[in-house]
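Appendix B, example 12.
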Amino acid sequence: MQSLIAKEKIPFFTIVPAFVDNTEIWRNKLTYALRLGNEFKGKTSITFETTQGPKTVETTIWSLGDDFLQLKGGVVIPLNSIIDVFF
């Protein structure tokens, strides 16, 4: 079971790859979520895997790279650790 955390708490967790790497699926959804955040200030829920179990953050995405996404404050989440994306 995942727990909701503040984006400022992400650096306190060790992020690990998800059991299934769905990077290509997430990249497409996150491209839309990036636009949603930049143009409409919409938030996205991102669930990712950590050593302490799945964690969820509700935030806007600032940028999207080939292997990661970046949130405000330079917080980075690897795409291969993502379990779910919802907006």
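The chain has a mean pLDDT of 92. The chain has one helix and seven strands.
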